[in-house]
Structure formats: C-alpha cells, structure tokens
Design goal:
With 250 residues, the chain is α+β, with helices and mostly antiparallel strands. 31% of the residues lie in helices and 26% in strands. The chain has a single domain (6-249), classed as ApbE-like domains (T-fold), CATH 3.10.520. Strands 1-2-3-4-7-8-9-10 form an eight-stranded antiparallel β-sheet, covered by helices on one side. The longest helix has 22 residues, at 46-67. The termini are close together.
C-alpha cells in the first residue's frame, strides 16, 4: 500500500485485496480516511463509529484553534496549555521536535487517534489520511512510494515488519499534492512510532530539500529528531535513505 500525497492515495485504496482485511472509507470535512481492519472485527456500524470518533477529534482541534487562531498559520514551535486536548498536545509536541508548526502534524494526529480507537476492536489496523498512514499489522506489508514525476516514482516500496508496528509512515512532497512545502522533494517519507511526529518530520525534511544536493544534509537533520526511526528522500532521480527501513523494487 502506497504512502501517497492526497490526490494519488486512491490508487492503493482500490488495489487492496484479500480475505484477511476488510476496508471502509470515512470522510469528515477535509479528513478523508481509508481504513482496513481484520475481517473478523468488521461490523456494519463500524463506519458510523469511526465517523463519530473523527468528528470528536476534529471538533477538539477546531475549538482549541478557534481560541488560539495563530496556531493555524504559525510555521514554528509553539507552546500549548497543559489542559489542551490530547490530540492538540500531540500535534504541538510533534511540530516542536521537528521544528515546524502544529498543523504540519494534523493529518497524522487524526490518523493515529482513529487507529488507536480501532486497535480496541481489531488486531490489525491501517488508517490512511491524505498520505499519512497508521499501521498495526501481524504480517509484513509493502508500502509503495509515489514520487510525482520522478523516474523512481512507483518503482520502490518499503517493507514494514510486524515488530515495527504500530508505526506511522508519512509522506510530504514539494512537487505534488496540496500540502504546504517550501522544498522541491518529490517525496520525503518519515517513519516513527508516533504518526504525528512522522507527519511533522516529513514536512520538515521536505522543506529542506531544494535539490538533489540537499539530500544528505536533510538526512543529517532527520538523525537528530528523537523518535524518527527511518527516512526516505527522493528528488528527481536521486534517493537517500537512513534508519530502520528496507527498500524493495516493485
């Protein structure tokens, strides 16, 4: 399953098959979730339950940001109150570690929150939210990498082992997709046990890549982010990787 920027994610959504997992989609405003759970855990009302959880998490974020609107546009570390909702604190904590604003972690934070809810129902869970993925699996899976017009796009995948999960696999791009990026990376992929942190780090790494010559420096930056376990960067026909990742050719 690919870690894709938002408009390309449907490619893997339609490609998932097999009897082990059943899938569903839930959309709440801008949040567009693709979910897979163990077939034995699937129920007819599961989409409704996930929708309620998603509305709750979005409302927590929106209500807090309504009181502190500068959080929507700030691009750097912030301090939020101790009594802020847990999901807001997770966003701020992730952004602070990666040196970006909390909104850089919002998609990953929602994916993780929904994923944690579903782990109470299913031993296997995959939640994708606009290219940011929460994964808990009992068998190895492959996460394909889409990198826009790069000649490497669609030719590589990451092998994710069960012992790595729960895991966040998040992707940012400066050349495709709607997400804000100040760089030119075709794909900046970050792995972490914290999905919000992987989301924020992917944004921070993508911002640092203006061209192929920046890949090694960006990897050096990634090594300093506590909690990041792996990174894959693609810019044009160049690739750089670090950490606990296993690349495969498709």
């Amino acid at each position: 399953m690919p870690a894709y920027p938002m408009e390309s994610s449907r490619v893997y959504r339609s490609a998932t098959s097999g009897l082990r997992l059943k899938t569903l989609s839930v959309t709440v405003k801008e949040t567009d979730l693709w979910i897979a759970v163990s077939s034995s855990s699937f129920s007819e009302n599961l989409a409704d339950r996930v929708e309620r959880v998603t509305w709750n998490r979005r409302r927590q974020i929106e209500d807090y940001f309504a009181d502190y609107p500068f959080l929507l546009s700030t691009l750097g570390p912030v301090v939020v109150a101790d009594d802020a909702p847990a999901i807001v604190r997770a966003m701020a904590r992730a952004g602070n570690r990666a040196g970006v604003g909390p909104m850089a972690a919002v998609a990953g934070a929602i994916a993780e929150s929904v994923g944690q809810f579903l782990l109470g129902l299913s031993e296997e869970v995959i939640v994708e939210n606009g290219g940011d993925v929460f994964i808990k699996t009992v068998e190895p899976i492959s996460v394909g990498i889409y990198a826009g017009d790069s000649p490497l796009s669609g030719k590589l995948s990451l092998k994710i082992r069960p012992d790595q999960t729960p895991l966040g696999v998040c992707t940012s791009s400066g050349t495709i997709g709607p997400s804000l990026s100040f760089g030119q990376a075709d794909a900046a992929v970050a792995l972490s046990g914290s999905v919000p942190l992987a989301d924020a780090a992917a944004t921070a790494l993508g911002n640092r890549v203006q061209g192929p010559g920046d890949l090694e420096e960006a990897l050096g930056f990634a090594r300093k982010i506590e909690g990041i376990t792996g990174v894959l960067l693609i810019c044009g026909d160049k690739i750089a990787a670090w950490g606990d990742i296993e690349l495969q050719k498709n």
